[in-house]
Design a protein that fits this description.
Layout lengths: L5 E8 L3 E6 L7 E3 L4 E3 L6 E6 L2 E15 L13 E14 L5 E3 L10 E4 L2 H7 L17 E5 L7 E4 L1 H6 L2 E4 L6 H14 L2 E3 L2 E3 L6 E5 L13 H7 L2 E3 L13 H8 L6 H12 L4 H21 L4 H22 L4 H10 L4 E3 L2 E3 L4 H15 L24 H14 L5 H20 L1 H4 L12 H9 L11 H8 L12 E5 L5 H21 L15 E5 L18 H16 L1 E7 L7 H5 L3 E4 L5 H10 L5 H4 L9 E6 L6 E5 L13 H5 L8 H9 L4
Parallel strand pairs: 12-21, 12-22, 15-19, 15-20, 16-19, 20-21
Antiparallel strand pairs: 1-2, 1-9, 2-7, 3-4, 5-6, 5-9, 6-7, 7-8, 10-11, 10-24, 13-14, 17-18, 22-23, 23-24
Length: about 700
C-alpha cells in the first residue's frame, strides 16, 4: 500500500457501517495519484480499507462536516473552530488474498485503521471486468451488462443471468419510474448478447419467457428491427382473441374460488357434481349414478343410530323413485318394494315419521343389494372415492354440470332432495349466469366442445412451441392466423399474454391457472422414465407485471384465499428446484404478498415515494443496505438500486436504454390539448367493445 493512497482513518465501526475522518490535508473531492486523479468523498463511490493482506470495500452513503473548538487553559487566547470532515460508508464486500471480490465482510477494521481511495485495478475486480474475448464461466462470472454505474461511468453493472433468474427477482417502483423498461432492457440484453463459452460463441436460442402483461405494454418492446433477432426470438403475443384457458383445466380449488359455493351445504354437492360431470362417457356416468344411489341406500340402512333419515327416505322419497328404479335398476326393484314394506308401520306426527322398522326385512334388503353389487354381473363396489378425478384436467360439459350433474349429485345425498335443491338453487343460477356472460364464458371457453389432446396443445401454445399447422384446434388456429408472431412454424422464445382487456373478475383465476399448469408441467418432467434425470432442464421464466393486482397480501374475498396468490406463493417456494422462476413487478410492494417477496433474492428498486412502501422494502432486504435505500425517493427515471445474489455488490445503476421501448410512455396531455389532434371515432371503439350488435 502506498502512503499516498491514504485519505483518512476509521474512527467508528459497527456491524456493517464505518465512520471515517478525512485527513486535514484532503481539501477537495479529488486526490492526485501516481496514475490518475481519484474521487475522495462522493456519494455511491467506494473507499478501500486494508485489513492485513485483504481490502474491505465500503460504499459512501453520507458525507458531513463538523466545526469543533479545542479548549485550552488560557484566558488570553481566542480560538477559532476547526472543521473536520467525516464520511459514513457501508461495508459491502472484500477483495481477498486471491484478488477476488466477494460480497460480504468477515474481517473488520479497527479504530485508526487507514482508509484509501480505490484504484482502477480494485474497480476492475469489483465490477468483474474482463477483456471482450475472455471465455465466460456461466456459473460464476458476472458477465451480462444491464447498465452503467453513475459513480464510475467507465464500468458496467453486470449480473450473472443464472443467479438472476434462478432465485426470483423483484422489480419495484412508482408508476412511470421505469419498471417495464428495466425488464425489457434486461431481456433485450440477453437476446442481443453474444457469449464466448468453452464451446464457442453462442446466442440464446432455447429461452422460455412467459410475460403476464396486464397493461398491454410489452409487445412493442420485442418487435425488433434486426431481422436475425426478430426471427430468432420470434415473439408470440396472445391478445384478447387468443387469451383463453379451457375451463376443464381448473381443479376444484380454482372452481371453488370462481363460483364460491357455500362451504356447509353447496360445496360437497358441487364437488360430487363435478366428479360426475368428468366421467368420460354417458354410459360410465349412468353406471356411476346407479352405484352411488345404491350406496346411499346401504348407508341409510347401516346408520341405524340416525334411523330418522331412513324413515324419511322410505316415506318421503322412495315412492317417487320407483319409476327410476324399475327403468334403471330393475334387478333391484323387489328389494326396494321390501324396503317400503319394512316401513309400513311408520306414522307421521308433527312433521316426523315415527314407529318401528321391520329389522329382518332391512337386513334382507341390505344383504341382497350387496350380493348383487359384488357379483360378476353387477357393478362392483369401488374402494375409495370417485372424487379423485376432480382435479384431473379432463373434459366435462359445463352446461350439463348445472343442468343435470348437480341434480344427480343431490339424488345421492342422504338427506332430503327437496331441501338440497333449495340450497343449490343459488349456485346453479350463478353457474348459469357465468355461462351466458361472454366476459367470463369466452376466456374460460365454457361453451367449447372437447378438444383432442387439449393439455398438450395448450402448454405448447403458451410456451410458444406449437409449430404444427395441422393441429386444427382453437390454439393452433390462432397462432397460424395471427399477425402477432413473426413465423408461426418456428419456436418462440418469448410469449406475451396480453391481459389488458381481461375482465377483473377472472384475472386471478386466469393467471393462477396458467401459473399452476406451468408448475405442474415442470414438476412432472422427471416422472417420465426417459426424463428421470431432467429435473430443471426445461427452465421457464414467468414475468408478473403489476403483480399486486392478482397476488395481493390482503385477500379480496372475505372467506377465500386468492387462488393466484396460492399458486404463485407455491412457485416462489418450490419452483426454483424445477426450473420455474418469477420476475415480480409492482408499484405497491406493501400490497404484494409478503411470502413471494421474501423468496426473491435479487431486487431492482426504482423510485419509491410512499413511506409505507419504502419501509416495507427495507424490511425485506439486508439491513446493511438500509443506507443505500435512503436514496429511493430521489432516484431519477431509468435509475435503480440493484442488490442481491445476481450482482457482485449492491449499487445504483443507470439501466441500459431500451430499444424498442415498451408502450408505457407518458401521455402528452398538453400537446394534444394545444391542437396536435388525433381523430378518434368513438363509434369504432364502441363497436370493437360490444361487437356488431346494439
Amino acid at each position: 500500500m502506498m502512503q499516498e493512497q491514504i485519505i483518512g482513518r476509521v474512527i467508528s465501526v459497527d456491524s456493517f457501517r464505518v465512520m471515517i475522518e478525512l485527513d486535514a490535508s484532503v481539501k477537495t473531492l479529488y486526490k492526485s495519484g501516481f496514475n490518475d486523479i481519484y474521487e475522495i468523498a462522493r456519494i455511491n463511490s467506494y473507499v478501500s480499507i486494508p485489513v492485513g493482506a485483504e481490502k474491505i470495500i465500503a460504499m459512501i452513503t453520507r458525507v458531513k462536516i463538523s466545526d469543533e473548538t479545542e479548549l485550552e487553559a488560557s484566558d488570553s487566547s481566542i480560538l477559532l473552530p476547526k472543521s473536520r470532515r467525516y464520511v459514513i460508508a457501508t461495508m459491502i464486500g472484500t477483495i481477498n488474498n486471491a484478488n477476488k471480490y466477494i460480497q460480504g465482510v468477515y474481517n473488520f477494521p479497527i479504530l485508526d485503521n487507514p482508509v484509501c481511495y480505490v484504484l482502477r485495478e480494485d474497480l476492475e475486480i469489483i465490477f468483474d471486468y474482463k477483456p471482450k474475448c475472455s471465455v465466460i464461466d456461466l456459473k460464476n462470472d458476472y458477465y451480462l451488462p444491464i447498465g452503467k454505474s453513475p459513480a464510475f461511468s467507465e464500468f458496467d453493472i453486470k449480473i450473472n443471468p443464472d443467479k438472476f433468474l434462478n432465485k426470483h427477482v423483484a422489480v419495484l417502483g412508482n408508476t412511470g419510474s421505469g419498471k417495464s423498461c428495466t425488464i425489457a432492457s434486461i431481456f433485450q440484453s440477453m437476446f442481443r448478447g453474444k457469449f464466448q463459452t468453452e464451446e464457442g460463441l453462442k446466442t440464446l436460442t432455447q429461452a422460455h419467457v412467459v410475460i403476464f402483461d396486464t397493461n398491454g405494454e410489452y409487445k412493442k418492446a420485442f418487435q425488433f428491427e434486426e431481422e436475425e433477432l426478430k426471427s430468432r426470438v420470434n415473439t408470440f403475443t396472445i391478445t384478447k382473441e387468443g387469451l383463453k384457458v379451457p375451463y376443464w383445466f381448473m381443479n376444484y380449488d380454482d372452481l371453488d374460488y370462481l363460483f364460491e359455493p357455500s362451504y356447509q351445504t353447496q360445496a360437497p354437492i358441487f364437488k360430487n357434481a363435478i366428479s360426475l360431470a368428468k366421467k368420460d362417457s354417458g354410459v360410465e356416468e349412468e353406471d356411476s349414478i346407479k352405484q352411488r344411489y345404491l350406496l346411499k341406500v346401504l348407508g341409510l340402512i347401516e346408520d341405524m343410530q340416525q334411523d330418522f333419515k331412513l324413515k324419511n327416505y322410505i316415506k318421503l322419497e322412495l315412492e317417487g323413485h320407483l319409476e327410476y328404479i324399475e327403468q334403471n335398476l330393475s334387478e333391484y326393484k323387489d328389494d326396494f318394494h321390501k324396503l317400503l314394506e319394512a316401513g309400513k308401520d311408520l306414522k307421521e306426527s308433527r312433521g316426523y315419521w315415527n314407529g318401528p322398522l321391520n329389522m329382518s326385512l332391512l337386513q334382507e334388503v341390505r344383504s341382497n343389494i350387496l350380493s348383487k353389487m359384488t357379483s360378476p354381473e353387477g357393478s362392483a363396489v369401488e374402494n375409495g372415492s370417485d372424487e379423485e378425478n376432480i382435479d384431473l384436467p379432463t373434459y366435462f360439459n359445463f352446461k350439463k354440470l348445472f343442468i343435470k350433474s348437480i341434480d344427480d349429485a343431490i339424488k345421492m345425498t342422504v338427506d332430503s332432495e327437496l331441501k338440497y335443491k333449495e340450497y343449490l338453487s343459488s349456485l346453479k343460477l350463478r353457474l348459469s349466469s357465468y355461462y351466458y356472460d361472454e366476459r367470463i364464458s369466452i376466456p374460460f371457453m365454457l361453451k367449447s366442445g372437447k378438444i383432442h389432446d387439449a393439455l398438450n396443445h395448450y402448454l405448447q401454445y403458451v410456451l410458444g412451441v406449437l409449430v404444427d399447422h395441422e393441429q386444427a384446434n382453437e390454439f393452433g388456429s390462432y397462432r397460424f392466423s395471427s399477425t402477432n408472431v413473426f413465423n408461426p412454424k418456428q419456436k418462440s422464445q418469448v410469449t406475451i399474454l396480453d391481459m389488458s382487456l381481461l375482465p377483473y373478475e377472472v384475472l386471478e383465476n386466469i393467471t393462477g391457472l396458467i401459473g399452476r399448469l406451468l408448475l405442474e408441467f415442470v414438476q412432472r418432467i422427471e416422472k417420465v422414465e426417459e426424463y428421470k434425470d431432467y429435473r430443471g432442464k426445461y427452465p421457464i421464466v414467468i414475468v408478473l407485471e403489476e403483480a399486486q393486482n392478482y397476488i395481493p397480501q390482503v385477500d379480496r374475498k372475505k372467506d377465500r384465499v386468492s387462488i393466484s396468490k396460492r399458486v404463485f406463493e407455491r412457485i416462489a417456494r418450490e419452483g426454483r428446484k424445477y426450473g420455474l422462476s418469477l420476475i415480480v413487478s409492482s408499484q405497491r410492494p406493501s400490497e404484494l404478498s409478503k411470502t413471494i417477496l421474501s423468496q426473491c433474492n435479487t431486487f431492482i428498486v426504482h423510485r419509491l415515494q410512499n413511506p409505507e412502501d419504502q419501509s416495507y422494502v427495507k424490511q425485506l432486504v439486508s439491513s446493511a443496505n438500509a443506507d443505500i435505500l435512503n436514496q429511493l425517493p430521489i432516484l431519477p427515471q431509468q435509475h435503480a438500486i440493484i442488490m442481491g445474489d445476481a450482482v457482485k455488490s449492491p449499487a445504483q445503476v443507470r439501466l441500459t436504454d431500451v430499444e424498442p421501448k415498451p408502450d408505457s410512455g407518458d401521455p402528452e396531455f398538453f400537446s394534444q390539448w394545444l391542437g396536435n389532434k388525433v381523430d378518434i371515432d368513438i363509434k369504432k371503439v364502441t363497436k370493437e367493445w360490444v361487437g356488431d350488435g346494439d
